[in-house]
Design brief:
The protein is of the alpha/beta class. About 40% of the residues lie in helices and about 10% in strands. The protein is globular. The relative contact order is 0.15. The structure holds zinc ion (ZN). The site of zinc ion (ZN) has 7 residues, from loops.
């Protein structure tokens, strides 16, 4: 088995698509031909990097990785949860205004569209139940108690993951960027624990065999080359992260100030069956990594994670929010190519056949 390497998900949208989205709502049917072209071009360029697993680049996840499933729903109002970024800007999520909570769409539709163009396996990222739990307002909604919302949320999430598994997703990756942010919002750790517990209620609905294809992504956030929780110590997050009943963990690593310290924490808390895909390129850093740099980062990780449980990934998606123009498509694919080539170089050093 070669060392597996997988992307996180998003790729910057083509400028033509972004310009069009500024004029009409992202879900407007007039954009369909532009989305279709964006997905086709993304997969063509993804495969040209040699990446053994691709995504659709989340080209159609309007407007972002977090709210794509509820975008356009009539029971979503403005002024919900805030995500403040270190660069000074913030992203504002919608707020649920009435029950029942339902998805407008499931991510398997993206998977299916991508599979039509792809000749290699496609993975699919979905948003976590814990992130969506932040849509429920602080004040209880009349006639729609929080407990009912959580039941509906878990059902919708389970449906989405099952649909992706049934359609042959290589992996279903649960985006859990709010995990590290939770420690910042509540240093006592209670919010993080509640997130982990909620996500485990969802994960427990899947069999061991199904969970072999389910992973969780953690990162300090990525938007306009900035982060929301890089100042939170991984030591506060990782012990809880590995309590989650998933098999694969996609962990932002190369942008960390002290990756060895993080790797030591991973060594201490990773459970025997858990695979860790370490981030070997940083979407927030415009400099294009060399394959040799990627190789060395992965070899360093191999000192702390058994090689048959180790993989490589990017630290985060390259444009989780659709209007983020900070990274070009050329840069994103050049960094992915470095990840793919560097992973093969590391495998050679470790004596693993490609
Ligand atoms: Zn991320």
């Amino acid at each position: 088995m070669p060392i597996p390497t997988e992307p996180i998900g998003s790729i910057p949208r083509p400028l033509r698509l972004l310009d069009a989205i500024e004029r009409v709502d992202g879900a407007d049917p007039s954009l369909d031909p532009l989305y279709e072209e964006a997905v086709r071009d993304t997969i063509r360029r993804f495969e040209a990097t040699g990446s053994p697993v691709v995504t659709d680049g989340e080209q159609r996840k309007f407007h972002n990785f977090f709210t794509y499933c509820v975008h356009g729903m009539p029971n979503m109002g403005p002024e919900g949860f805030r995500i403040p970024f270190a660069a000074g800007h913030e992203r504002r999520m919608p707020r649920l205004t009435a029950g029942p909570f339902r998805y407008a769409r499931y991510a398997d539709r993206y998977l299916e569209a991508a599979q039509r163009h792809a000749s290699v396996p496609v993975k699919q990222a979905v948003i976590s139940p814990s992130a969506l739990s932040l849509l429920y307002p602080e004040q209880e909604l009349p006639g729609y108690p929080r407990e009912q919302f959580i039941r509906d949320l878990l059902n919708e999430h389970e449906t989405e993951v099952r649909r992706c598994l049934e359609k042959g997703a290589h992996k279903v990756q649960i985006d859990f960027t709010e995990g590290r942010l939770a420690v910042k919002l509540d240093p006592s750790g209670r919010l993080l624990q509640s997130f982990v517990d909620l996500n485990n209620l969802a994960l427990e609905r899947f069999s061991d065999a199904e969970r072999q294809r389910i992973g969780v992504h953690t990162c300090p956030g990525g938007d306009r080359d900035s982060t929301h929780s890089a100042d939170v110590d991984y030591a506060e997050l990782l012990p809880s992260l590995f309590e989650m009943k998933a098999t694969h963990f996609y962990v932002a690593l190369c942008s960390e100030a002290d990756p060895v310290r993080v790797l030591k924490i991973i060594r201490q808390y990773r459970k025997p069956g858990q695979h860790v895909f370490v981030g070997v390129t940083s979407p927030n850093d415009p400099r294009i990594d060399s394959a040799e740099e990627v190789r060395d980062r992965l070899l360093q990780a191999a000192d702390y994670i058994p090689v048959d449980r180790l993989g490589s990934t990017d630290d985060c998606g390259f444009a989780p929010f659709c209007d983020d123009r900070s990274t070009t498509r050329d840069t994103a694919f050049a960094k992915i190519r470095a990840r793919v080539e560097g992973t093969a170089l590391a495998a050679q050093v470790l004596g693993i056949p490609a």
